[in-house]
Amino acid sequence: MRIDLEELKSKIKPKLRPIIWRDEDNTLLLLDQRKLPFEEVYVELRDPVSTADAIKQMIIRGAPAIGITAAYGMVLAIAHGNIPTLDEALNELVKARDVLNTARPTAHNLFWATERMLNVARNAVHNGSAKNVKELLNIMKMEAKAIFDEEFDAELMMGIYGLEKINDGDTVLTQCNAGGLATGTGIGTATAPVRVAHALGIKVSVIAPETRPWLQGARLTVYELMVDGIPVTLITDTAVGYVMYRGMVNSVMVGADRILRYGHVYNKIGTFKEAVIAHELGIPFYAIAPSSTFDLKSRVEDVKIEERDPDEVRKIRGVLIAPENVPVFNPVFDVTPPKYVTALITEKGIIYPPFDKNIPKVLSVT
Ligand code: MRU
């Protein structure tokens, strides 16, 4: 089926807006994902330190959304206060990059976005296109918007490529929330093929595991798909194997926080388990991510898997469900080795094994 990107844009109009830039007063507004699905409240940010904190606290989360937020965090570094010289502005940007990069360790998009913003600023100063801080600020705003717009188009392209993997009547199992809330655009990565299929009248439904401990599946994936009228069923994390064994799942589609050269996929804890079961049962497993999620330099041993507060496990929404002092191990991502990955779906095309040869080829990078 030939699908035109512009035509698709007219058909897919997501209702949620997780990231808003308010230009009149240079303020970043984030839909507070800690409060969803019960309250839609925006948090207003005006400096990089509180932007980094918002990422840490998971007011915003999901790899591409973290990247876009960090890009605006860089804008905020020079948007307020009177920074007199371009040299001082560059210093502020380096400080902002350093603070934002400590917010969370696993999603590659964060480091990719802050580096891209800093490089653009340095180039603008060195080649004279920014003659003062006001001009530099405008260039930074345009770059952050470009990151957002590119992400939006990339997700539609992932949806178009991913459509090849969806048949009428299919059910897709996902993990966590790799939807529009996780990317900031309202579309998503793992959910992009589903959204495109739905927009074209192809019947497709989603099974969302609740994704303990933060419950991204129960609170966010289910919510955003219901808002957009896409059929979704919530299951417990422990039901994953059973639903696949019962033949209720045609494919697994997940997002990614980072993908390495040999095809290792870092994603929300529980993804590896889905991949192994899918492999055992002959169900295809796809990781769907934009090229900003690919890290072709790091090795498995270089990537830090974030471990979060033990109370996220001991409690559910503030209510203790285990002895108060029980020791807890709370890694929030896992890594799926390439042998379990059927294909990677990107905005530049579908990548099949061997990944070390085909990732550079499809993404046109070395
Ligand atoms: O801890 P989170 O909620 O930031 O984890 C999010 C995920 O694991 C997503 O699947 C991933 O970032 C891809 S988002 C399109």
UniProtKB/TrEMBL annotation:
Residues noted as binding substrate in the record, renumbered to the chain: 61-63, 104, 216, 267-268
Membrane-spanning segments: none
Translocase found in the keyword field: no
Active site: 257
Protein family according to the UniProt entry: Belongs to the EIF-2B alpha/beta/delta subunits family. MtnA subfamily.
Function text: Catalyzes the interconversion of methylthioribose-1-phosphate (MTR-1-P) into methylthioribulose-1-phosphate (MTRu-1-P).
Protein's name in the database: Putative methylthioribose-1-phosphate isomerase
